[in-house]
Amino acid sequence: MRTLLIAGNWKLNPTTAEAAVALAEGVKTGLGTATDVHVAVAPPFVFLSQVDGVLEGSPIGLSAQDMYWENSGAFTGEVSGSMLVDVGCTHVILGHSERRHGMGETSDIVNRKVKAALEAKLIPIVCIGETKEERLGERTEAVLLEQLSGSLAGLAPEQMAGIVLAYEPVWAIGTGLTATPEQAQAAHAFIRDWLTKVFGEATAARVVVQYGGSVKADNALQLLGCPDIDGALVGGASLKASDFLAIIKAGQEVTAGGKA
Ligand code: PEP
To answer: Quick one: CA dihedral 87, 93, 98, 101, positive or negative?
Structure first.
């Protein structure tokens, strides 16, 4: 029922357009025309147009890593949803922990961006997740509740069904630490349960919820095999085409095994 989405968040990498094009070409060539899992890459803003050119004719989606909620005007340094669509974007990552914790982005701000992204016809990938201190303090569920209800406030079930969520425990991002499949599945089940309560069972069953946090070729199969994990948001391992393709292959294997 849900097709897995494997998305690569390139963050502030690579450092040249040439390297970005080469990385996109590597992923495109390796994936070919396969659509059994959905794939997207999220380069820095400045490389979006060139990467879009590379991805032409491929099923790979193009994602931005952030956007602003206003469409135009005196907002120096910002980029709008309609601009992203104009350069070929299909998705936009919102509320990544590096923005929530590094740049003070609140759930209210994320909510404004989610609504603007939907308005622009982009698929938002909304990130949520607890810090190490919050997990150790047994506040994981309270944090997820705040981020879910704040970031997704005021949405209709039909809008929610078109949003991707990414559960990314902050302590697992870029650290080499990964949530165990049991820890990840428990958080995903909690998220699915919340979606069911707020938006109804039919909508909850349609929402793709990715896991993110040091996903690599050697842990992808186990994580993606969990019933409520519908893909991966991949940082470090998306910067080398062969590593990213190995994670996609794990997604294809669990899909072929009848997971979706
Ligand atoms: C991320 O950036 O969303 C992420 C999960 O990074 P990493 O895979 O490097 O932990």
So the answer is: positive
